[in-house]
Amino acid sequence: MPIGGSSPAVRSAQAERTAGAEVEQPGRHGTGRTSRRVPRGARAERLAPFVLVAPAVLIIVALRLWPLLLGVNFSFTGDGERNGTFVGFDNYAELLNDPLFRTALRNVGLLVILLPVAVAIPGLLATFIYLRVPGHRVFRGVYFFPAVLSPVIVGAIFNLMLGFDGPLNTALAQIGLGPIDWLGDPGIAMFTVVGVHIWATFGMALVVFLAGFSTLDAALLDAARMDGASLPQIIWHVIVPGLSRTIQFVFVTTMIGMLTSMFGLLYVMTSGGPEGSTYLPEFYVWIQQGQMNRPALASAASTVLFLIMLVVGILQVSVLRRAGRED
Fold first, then answer.
1. How far is Cα of residue 28 from the mean position of the Cα atoms in its chain?
2. Which of 33, 58, 83, 140 is the 20 to 30 Å CA partner of 324?
3. pLDDT at 20 over 60
């Protein structure tokens, strides 16, 4: 055996171990080609959510976002002799100078003020139904029934009831109150139409609240009752915090409905009158597009309506979230 060296057999064994380590090292450190290969099953699982969401995204882009962008672009063009030409912000300046559109914006502010009432009514009724007041099964069907009626039918019914010589004024006269011009007084007409809209549509919000109650922990209600909490305390300290996300959803959807779903009532009950006092941006858009043949100005009004709904919705969600964190 040579001095200071290894035998050929030992060197051969060491060389084999070194070669084996070099072969195994890439796999051990994850740098080999085999370790980088992703199994087909894992790759399919990663792509599955995108494949499932893709049809909905394409529909939203094709039927919502793209027409919205076209409408915004069209609002910067002219009408009549200037049809198709770029006019900048002329349409928006004309909107701000139009008394009818300013009235429509003031009415939007009125809707925002009345929004808590429109949400509180179905919320309280859903609470009573959840607490199983006597006859709650009958009330559930009765409260939802107006939601299936056409706004045209609802408007026609209330036109008869709220007429100057209608049943409501006749009943008021029996108790010594003078007749009220519910639909002909500019100071009252908008409140009347909003009240009818709330009556006709709160059934959907009621269903949403009842669905939210199904996620509420009943043990909290039982504990509150055992501690001697009154019904207002239970509603404010137990039910409202427990339904915070449901309340946020109802606030936003109710506001959108009040801004975009009152055309039928307005058309049948007041046609924007008296003196333009019941104009809303949605009704203004129809007047400019359908009667005045000014589609570019109507597009500008639609863009303003979209921005109003976006800002109001974001503000509502932020305020309600802040209130929920404080509770």
1. 53
2. 140
3. no
Check residue 276 and give left, alpha or beta (phi > 0: left; psi -120 to 50: alpha). Answer: left
CATH code of domain 89-326: 1.10.3720.10
pLDDT per position as a tens digit, 199-250: 999 999 999 999 998 888 888 888 888 888 888 888 888 888 888 889 888 9
DSSP string over 243-269: THHHHHHHHHHHHHHHHHS-HHHHHHH
Extract the tokens encoding 244: 């915070």
List the chain domain ranges. 8-74, 89-326
The predicted pLDDT at position 300 comes to: 94
Query: DSSP characters for 117-135?
Result: HHHHHHHHHHHHHHTT-TT
**φ, ψ for residue 77, nearest 5 deg:** -110, 170
* Average pLDDT, integer, range 145-163: 91
Specify whether the CB–CB gap between 168 and 111 falls below 8 A: no
Phi first, then psi, for residue 22 (nearest 5°) are: -65, -30
CA separation for the pair 264, 6 (Å, rounded)? 100
Pick from 25-39, 78-92, 170-184, 250-264: least confident: 25-39
